[in-house]
Amino acid sequence: MTEPGAPTGPQARGDAPEPAGHGHEARPGHEALPEEAALPEDAALDALPRPRALPGRLVWVVAIAMATIVGVLDQATKQLAERQLEAGPIDLGLVSLTLVRNPNAAFGIPGFTGMFLIVTVIVLAIIVRMLTRTDRFSLAAAFGLVAGGAIGNAVDRITRPPGFPDGAVVDFVNLGWFPVFNVADAAITVGAILVVLLLVITDRQEARRAAARVGRSPVRPETASPRR
């Protein structure tokens, strides 16, 4: 029989009180990770090279600015060539300046009436479509080179004799072993090569990042019960 005022329960048996949180201790090997902790694989993904990204509007600014510079430089050099080279070519050593009025395409490639203006419109339409799908500074600049060159030669087709749509393009850069060309031709060629190279590099970088994501193994153990 228990006396009044005597302790009861665990204290009466001499047991120590249960520590707070008993029954909810973390099991060895199941320590919780903070939700915001960065995974090592994420750091590895971030270390992979990624082309420089631009906001959508800046892509257009870069492309239009590059196209404008090429177009203005092309027309200015053509007018200067017409004034200075009518009397004859100028020999600069490895390069000579020779005035040639080219009724054909770049580098003398022949075509039918109005073909080159049609090609220009198609090229510009493709560039506009591609610019809506890229956020890379380098690609925007390369597309601007191609667009500026295409527009520069198109101006000649429209404004120079014998008249629209077959005006002769003014060429003046003569390497001796290569067809005579102009600033617009050079911009188109360099821009097209850069577009191809940059697209290949970008695709490879994105493929590496995708492969790294697929190869990641989850760090947390699966705790959800299987669906039935």
Account of the protein in words:
- The chain has 228 residues and is mainly alpha-helical.
- It has a domain at 56-212.
- Helices cover 48% and strands 7% of the residues.
- The chain is built from 5 helices and 3 strands.
- The protein has helices at residues 40-47, 56-84, 115-131, 137-159, 183-214; strands spanning 90-91, 96-102, 169-174.
- It has a 3-stranded antiparallel beta sheet with strand order 1-2-3.
- The longest helix is centred in the C-terminal third of the chain and has 32 residues, at 183-214.
- The radius of gyration is 35 Å and the shape is elongated.
- It starts with 39 loop residues before the first helix and ends in a 14-residue tail after the last helix.
- Derived from helix and strand composition plus strand pairing, the structural class reads mainly alpha
**Which regions contain 5 or more consecutive residues with pLDDT less than 50?**
19-40, 221-228
Distance between the termini: 56 Å
The proportion of residues forming helix, as a percent range, comes to 40-55%
Mean model confidence by pLDDT: 78
Give the number of DSSP strands: 3
As a percent range, the share of strand residues is 5-15%
How many strands, what sense, and barrel or not for the largest sheet? 3 strands, antiparallel
| Secondary-structure element order, N to C | HHEEHHEH
The strand order across the widest sheet is 1-2-3
C-alpha geometry: elongated
Question: Nutshell version of this structure?
Answer:
The chain has 228 residues and is mostly helical.
